[in-house]
Amino acid sequence: MSFDGGTLARLLGTPVIRFAVLIRLGFLVLIVFTPKAGAQERVGYVLQVEGAWYLAGDTHPIVRGQSVKARDIIRNDSPAEDHLLVVVNNQGQTLLTRNCAQNQNSCRRVIVPAQKQSPSPFNAFLGRVMSLWQSEPDRFAVHITRGGFRESVLAMRDGRVDLTPAFEHLTPETYLVEFKPLAVVGAEAGQPPRVEKLDWNSETARSLTLQGLAPGLYEMIRLQSKNKQPTLDSAWILIIDATKYEEATRRFAEVKRLSLAWEEKNVDKATVRSLLRAFLDDMARSHIAPPTN
Question: How far apart are CA 218 and CA 243, in angstroms?
């Protein structure tokens, strides 16, 4: 059967034919624009990895900070007792752990679970930090975890830095400390290292302040009192203007609360402190470094 142009036009003009055409067009749109069933979404990041673990189909071992997707298959071809894998979700909460000391067979093939997660500002923050942590592992490395100094956010008011949060847990005594400026993207370290003798007595003094340091990211290193050589006691600190301090310290406190849960999952202290340094670095970029054009 054949139709001339006029006959086809009359047929398309009938309600039944128009309805059928619209249904077919709508079905075609759904096919084109609907995501494929089982499409993978990023659900988290590798927090701790000990041993050689691989994503299925990849020949490169996974690394800390690497993102993973729902239903990714992670394999360990030769699990050993000291092999460990910890993955956190987009909110920094533990998504999966595999401790091969407990069951080596369970480490050979691991499927990343799908998990419904609501977007939040912390998701973006964690994503930036994990990307930074993955791309510059040596910058944030912590090889020694002994000592009393801890990563901190410190407020500057009227030209003076309040060092109390960095010292309140320390033994009362005199500390010889070097403040070593650290460069961040968009800003140079600028200042030379500065050495200060600080008398800390938490029983008689409610605060410890220091004048002359500019806002920025620093490594705080304890020096030997006799020869001024660096000890193994060091930590990163972020000095920030008091007007931005409340927001920054709230966010950092959130991260530190998460870090306590990470340690309960056998994540070592060096890894936790390394990631805390990456968090401070990201906050320095946001609050200290000038905007780039």
Answer: 19
